[in-house]
What does this fold into?
Amino acid sequence: MTTVHRVFNFAAGPAVMPVSVLEQMQRDLLALPGVGISIFEISHRSKAFEAILAQAEADIRTLAGIPSSYRVLFLQGGASLQFSMVPMNLLGAAETADYIDTGSWADKAITEAKKVGGVHVAASTRADGYSRIPSPPEIALTEGAAYVHMTSNNTIEGTEWKTLPSTGSAPLVNDASSDMFSRPIDVRRHALIYAGAQKNMGPAGLTIVIIREDLLERSLARAATLPAMMNYAVHAEHKSLYNTPPAVAVYATGLVMKWLLDQGGLPAIAAINERKAASLYAEIDRTGFYRGTAAKDSRSLMNVTFRLRGDDLERMFVEEATAAGLDGLKGHRAVGGMRASIYNAFPEAGVDALVSFMRDFERRHG
Ligand code: PMP
It folds into this structure.
């Protein structure tokens, strides 16, 4: 057997997956046990694939405690397609949707929604460089809004909502791309939750949408003009098999859901995630050599963003870290600095390795 060398992968997504899941995929690559066909080759209309899809959905429902009045859809097009699908399905041209602008991805969602209907930016922290989540009094909602859109974790800026905003009777729509299943999620407080799988749930190519059934009425009402592929009701009616789904990504995500259940579910993984983030933030705050970019009460447990004084030092940090097997620490090109993405599957040993690297780097350059 060859020894496989894996670096610590701090990438923001696609991101690290559980090793046990990758090993199982490797083991079953040539043929799914009892089926004799690889997941790459299997018909999406086969009983075997239907069972894989059904099991993935069942495990997602168990993990997140999803009520039966919600549908779970397995779609493609990434969270970016949801920026369009959400308004195309839920927002009439003469209606207004409220958007809470907490980062670059929220801003992209706003841009797409404006192409469909009225958009009211209910709160924005852009003026503060998106370094924080708005407080409840800052959020000015529209009476009778079609929905309120939020981004529970801002992947680029490293901020995360600690509690959900109150939206009254307006349906809450949440882009949870970078914190889905990293902590317990109160599905009932949402009308729609969406997330690309490639951060916390599996490989790229799959988007999970959890939608409250009554919202499908709005999709049905627009069926004559809405392309079928963009219509939630079409995907719900066909149980995510309207067309060929990304079978490999569905299968891998299903395995990650099993892995999460084996870890003890969302409360257990949340405790681990809190421990990992706390250890990294403690190091950032220890002397002032590093500077966290997010306001303390808004800090993300998934994407830990920090800076050093000067571009040269930051470049050196990333170079030396990469050479030390700590990969993907360069911050998003839009904001610079450093970003350590430490999703569910990111090992605690990797956080420990980064903390000791940071200490050592400070000793040498502080
Ligand atoms: N929303 C958030 C919060 C994200 O982090 C990302 C991807 N980094 C997106 C949306 C866009 O996702 P996708 O690439 O799946 O379209």
